[in-house]
Design a protein that fits this description.
The structure holds 2 protein chains of 2 kinds. By secondary structure, chain A is of the alpha+beta class. Chain A has 22 helices and 20 strands. The chains are: A alpha+beta, B mainly alpha.
Chain lengths: ~600, ~475
């Protein structure tokens, strides 16, 4: 062979190249490329979620508002299901036989070897009966569901639902099938209440059949139960408020002035939160959603109403601070404010001073005061003066979110001079916007903001941000923002005449809120009757009591309820009475409130 | 030949490196079969109902055969080469009629509890027959008649095996090209083969126009490499490019989009032919015709590929090729095996998950994991270190066979050793290459690793006859 040795070298070269190619490729897929390791884990590891019980919610007296109840999901592994008595199973579950067949078919289509959920949230009794019968291929998995023993405060407590795709995309903690707080406290304190899911990592073979725990279970975690919450709500008061509001559309909010703790947050119509639990949830939810009175709408923080005459107290305070008003200043009022298009007033004595004007809710008086504020020469123009006024209003928490621990709070509305410049193309004056002096016009505020005003006056000039959570059970304190005193732009020394006026409004003859009077409780209140485009006037009332060292501030708003004294004031008075004396001494008044008919033609549409 | 000097004396001349590599590979092979089918409920290694138990029996049989081969005189191999070859052909034919079908291939004989696959042994007998024929004094590898006989020796078993529908085993016979190269087979056959394979691969990967352009460039560059005058080549290529553009744009302006880029290029090349021929005539370079022929040959070939692919290959073969080239993937269908195999090997990482700790193989994500895909267990449990060791051991074995072949005094031994080297190299490249996705899925075993008595015995015979031949060469040498 003349060139044998060269050919041998070539062949050895081929062997070297083949070896090198194999080694390089092996090095690449085993050492360089890490995707195969992930793929391998995906192949063989199954993460079994261990659900923790959700944290419970107590009221301020330690009574349950929300409990976690055990529930069971019925699972099935289709290929292990043996022929069974479908009728019997249907009877135990309370479903039709076709439903079971349907669900089994769906599960079968998903996987013959893996477990699928057939029926969710079955009560414990059903589980016990299923265990007695022992259907092969079926088993149950522990979950917890919410139960609401008091059946009240639906909008306050909120509800829990299965996570949807949007949540799954945004928040990596959640997996399909998890529950999450969808509104109210359930949503606001979701991260506290939910606890931490545990995980059990199992190895499975190619058929999905479990082959034991992974790495001896060292990566498994136990679920840690959700943390219980004590909220600031007083269950008795909440129940009373909801009872009194029944059949009416409106809201009651009560706050402990010193701390900003919300004692009552009732919105009417409301719903039984238990209806949004379990297998009927979907149907019930749609029913609530279709209700024209919108029971899922939390009016306490989401409805923006004109504040009506309760707002006069604020204008009085601004006037005093601005130096355009002194307590003894009197204005004449003979049936109203005579300038511009005029503002009508009701019958009371004249001339009248500040406390008298608050007591009798004189419209004319506050028209004078309001114009003096915004037409103050020292600001050069009405627009400047108006913005100064608006700043005062905002310092009381109007026109912006109060930043409570509650989702869905509305800003409300305090207009600015720029707004009127746009609407009136720059040509407007104090008379154009005169209705703001009596809490009408472009003002919008939530019942929560009105209650906050009552608390601010009760505190003589400052408030703490209203909040619903008193204590989170594994922590020493709640968020620091709830311990700060927020001072308004009005000096505390100017509050006395307003408080005096509110005291007289309830406790002296000629006051507008006499119906709210409870001997010995020193309730200070202000009525409001807010005109609105949807029919009869809204009835509103804000109050606090007792006059010195107040314990409670209440705001009641009843849509289309007429005069403030007609329905709002009695409700506020009863809530206050129950809170301060633990009893109701006026069953007649309760009866009056409950039977007072109010028509809502607007919602009937 | 003198063999009666006693076995004790000859032992020193055994190629112990090869024997050691063999022992290591068989041992590792058994451990991996054990790991692949391991199950807590059958923990005894002697459990004959389990594959590792059976494999232990086969290892015993192989060891017995190996020792026997070393003890028996080697003159019988030359003598028995043809009879064994014909006998094996008869057996293969018998299998074709009486055999049992497994996985679509009718390649098994079942005798009692044992199933044998004669195709495995046919490689061995064919090697002997080839060695016998090609070592005959009158054989000349450049003689067409002799070459035809060589191909007949190969063709007989290959066609029977093809009839058994065992394409993988038939392809193994292609590996003898390795041995033939050593024996002086025409180089151009290999060049042509490499070109055909490249054309085949690139005809799938490249757009027709790009492939055509590549062919033009390759032929021109090849001509330049033989004849020089690079300036002329550059001018020619530039001219072709310009011409193509002119024709394409011109046709587009005149008649709209009637001509594809591919057609424009082809027209330009054909139009350039007179120029090329004139150039060849002027510079008196007759070999230019060779390159013109090469170009049009390739062109014709690319057009037959589609036909071959669509009509001659079976669907699963088409899919495997498309999957390998990354053109089509169906991880739940055709691509499942290779994908799971890559996952298993890739997840082994540098040092592996440890013996019996491989989750992908233990929980059956890899199909055929104790036979064709046994390397997955190596890759997963022993990592890159273990896989590399196996690859290197096989490389060492191939080098030893080449070395043993080269130190043979007689062509018979050399050709035989090269046959063995060819078969081992092909099996290792194709089997491991398949598990890591650089070779199409061809169902052939990994020597000494894949479960199965027939293949273990066949590879043991193949190797130990080479060792035995090597031994007697040294006896001769010493005498």
């Amino acid at each position: 062979m003349e060139n044998g040795s060269e050919r041998v070298r070539t062949l050895k070269g081929v062997v070297v190249v083949v070896t090198a190619v194999l080694l390089l490729r092996l090095f690449y897929i085993q050492v360089v490329d890490t995707t195969y390791k992930t793929d391998a884990a995906n192949n063989v590891l199954r993460y079994m979620v261990q659900y923790p019980p959700r944290g419970e919610v107590y009221d301020r007296n330690g009574a349950f508002l929300v409990q976690s109840k055990e529930a069971y999901d019925l699972m099935a592994i289709p290929r292990e299901v043996k022929p069974f008595d479908t009728l019997e199973l249907a009877r135990i579950l309370g479903v039709r036989v076709e439903q079971i067949r349907n669900e089994l078919r769906k599960a079968s289509n998903f996987s013959r070897r893996r477990a699928s959920v057939l029926f969710k949230q079955l009560p414990k009794e059903v589980k016990v009966r299923l265990d007695e019968r022992n259907f092969p291929g079926f088993f149950t998995v522990y979950r917890t569901v919410r139960s609401y023993p008091t059946k009240m405060a639906g909008n306050l407590l909120g509800y829990v639902g299965e996570v949807n795709d949007r949540i799954l995309e945004r928040n990596p903690y959640y997996r399909s099938g998890d529950y999450i707080g969808m509104s109210g406290i359930e949503q606001a304190y979701e991260e506290v209440l939910r606890g931490e899911k545990g995980v059990k990592i199992e190895m499975v073979d190619v058929h999905g059949i479990p082959k034991g725990s992974y790495a001896g279970g060292i990566y498994d975690t136990l679920p840690s139960p959700g943390i219980a919450i004590t909220c600031t709500i007083d269950g008795r008061l909440q129940a009373l408020a909801e009872e009194l509001l029944e059949g009416k559309v409106g809201s009651v909010v009560a706050i402990e002035p010193e701390t900003g703790e919300i004692l009552v947050m009732a919105s009417s119509p409301t719903y039984d939160p238990d209806e949004l639990v379990g297998r009927q949830r979907g149907n019930n939810y749609m029913k609530l959603l279709r209700d024209s009175r919108r029971p899922l709408f939390n009016r306490a923080v989401m409805a923006s109403y004109p504040p009506g005459s309760t707002f006069k107290t604020l204008n009085g305070l601004i006037g005093l601070q601005e130096g355009v008003l002194v307590e003894s200043q009197t204005y004449p009022c003979h049936g109203g404010y005579p300038y511009g298009r005029g503002v009508k007033c009701h019958n009371h004595w004249s001339p009248i001073d500040l406390t008298g004007a608050v007591q009798t809710s004189c419209n004319a008086y506050f028209c004078y005061v309001f114009r003096n504020i915004i037409e103050n020469k020292k600001y050069g123009s009405i627009k400047k003066g108006f913005d100064v006024w608006a700043d005062y209003v905002r310092s009381f928490g109007y026109g912006r979110k109060l930043n409570t621990d509650f989702y869905g709070e509305l800003n409300g509305n305090v207009p600015s001079s720029a707004f009127y410049d746009r609407v009136y193309r720059g040509s407007w004056n104090g008379l154009t916007v005169i209705s703001l002096s009596i809490g009408q016009g472009e003002l919008g505020c939530t019942p929560m903001q009105m209650a906050n005003l009552a608390a601010t006056i009760a505190n003589r000039g400052h408030y703490r941000i209203p909040h619903v959570v008193k204590r989170i059970h594994d922590r020493d304190s709640i968020d620091s923002r709830f311990y700060e005193d927020h001072y308004t732009k009005v000096d505390p020394k100017y509050f006395d005449p307003i408080v005096e006026g509110m005291y007289r409004a309830v406790n002296q003859e000629g006051g507008t809120g006499g119906i709210a009077r409870v001997p010995g409780l020193d309730i200070c209140g202000k009525t409001g009757t807010a005109q609105n485009p949807h029919g009869a006037d809204h009835s509103t009332f804000m109050c606090f009591a007792p006059r010195n060292h107040p314990k409670i501030a209440v705001s009641v708003y009843v849509e289309n309820g007429g005069f403030g004294a007609r329905i709002a004031a009695p409700i506020a008075s009863l809530v206050t009475e129950l809170y301060l004396t633990d009893t109701i001494q006026r069953p007649d008044l309760v009866q009056y409130v409950k039977t007072l008919p109010i028509n809502y033609p607007y919602y009937a549409k | 030949m003198q063999n009666d000097s006693g076995n004790g004396l000859t032992l020193g001349r055994v190629d112990w490196t090869s024997v050691l590599v063999y022992v290591l590979l068989v041992l590792m092979g058994w451990l991996n079969i054990y790991a692949a089918v391991y199950d807590e409920s059958h923990a005894s290694i002697f459990d004959l109902t389990q594959r590792y138990g059976m494999q232990l029996v086969w290892i015993g049989v192989s060891a017995f055969l190996a020792i026997s081969i070393l003890l028996i005189d080697d003159k019988y191999y030359h003598m028995l080469a043809y009879p064994l070859y014909w006998l094996m052909l008869l057996v293969l034919l018998a299998v074709l009629f009486f055999g049992k079908e497994v996985n679509g291939a009718k390649a098994w004989i079942v005798i009692g509890p044992v199933a044998l696959q004669p195709t495995e042994l046919a490689k061995f007998t064919t090697s002997l027959a080839l060695a016998r024929y090609m070592s005959s004094y009158s054989f000349d590898i450049h003689n067409l008649k002799d070459l035809v006989r060589v191909f007949l020796i190969l063709l007989l078993p290959v066609s029977i095996i093809m009839m058994q529908n065992d394409t993988g085993s038939a392809l193994v016979y292609g590996s003898f090209l390795f041995m033939l190269y050593r024996e002086g087979f025409n180089r151009w056959v290999y060049v042509a083969l490499i070109m055909v394979i490249s054309l085949f691969v690139f005809s799938f990967l490249l757009e027709p126009a790009v492939l055509l352009a590549c062919m033009v460039i390759v032929c021109t560059v090849a001509e330049g490499a033989t004849n020089g005058d690079w300036r002329g080549k550059v001018i020619y290529l530039a001219g072709v490019a310009l011409g193509t553009l002119l024709i394409y744009i011109g046709a587009w302006l005149a008649f709209g989009p009637v001509l594809s880029l591919y057609a424009s290029l082809l027209i330009t090349v054909i139009l350039s032919l007179p120029v090329v021929l004139l150039y060849a005539y002027r510079s008196k370079l007759r070999n230019i015709f060779l390159f013109v022929f090469l170009f049009f040959g390739s062109l014709a070939f690319t057009h037959t590929i589609d036909y071959v692919f669509d009509n001659l290959l079976q669907t699963h073969q088409q899919k495997r090729i498309l999957d390998l080239l990354g053109l089509e993937s169906d991880l739940k269908g055709w691509g499942y095996n290779v994908n799971q195999s890559k996952i298993a090997i890739g997840s082994g990482g540098f040092s592996g998950k440890g013996f019996l700790e491989g989750t992908q193989t233990k929980y059956n994500f890899v199909p055929e994991q104790s036979t064709d895909f046994i390397f997955c267990t190596v890759g997963e449990e022993w990592g890159f270190l273990g896989s590399a060791l196996v690859v290197v051991l096989f490389a060492v074995l191939t080098f030893r066979l080449i070395k043993m072949g080269e130190r043979q005094m007689e062509p018979f031994g050399r050709i035989y050793c090269y046959c063995a080297a060819s078969i081992f190299l092909f099996h290792v490249l194709v089997n491991i290459g398949m598990t890591i996705g650089i070779m199409p899925v061809i169902g052939i075993p990994l020597p000494f690793f894949s479960y199965g008595g027939s293949s273990l015995i066949a590879f043991t015979l193949l190797l130990f006859v080479a060792i035995r031949l090597d031994m007697s060469k040294q006896e001769q040498f010493m005498l």
